Amino acid sequence: MMPSKICILRIEGTNCELETFLSFKRLGASAEIVHLKQLIGAVKERERRNLKGYDLLVIPGGFSSGDYIRAGAILAARIKGALGKEIEDFTENGNPVLGICNGFQVLVEMGLLPGFTHEKTEMQQVALTTNDSARFECRPALIKHESKGKCVFTRGIEEGSILKMPCAHAEGKFFIEEKKREEYIPLLEENDQIVFRYVDTDGTYASYPWNPNGSIYNVAGICNPEGNILGLMPHPERAFYAFMDSEWSRAARERRREEGEKKEDAYGDGKRIFESVLDYLQSRRFLKRKVYK
Amino acid sequence: MTIEVEVTIKLKHGVADPEGENTKKALNLLGFKNVRSVKTMKTFRIEIEPGEEEKVKYEVEEMCRKLLANPVIHDYEISVAW
Question: How many CA atoms lie within 13 A of A142 on its CB side?
Answer without folding.
Answer: 16
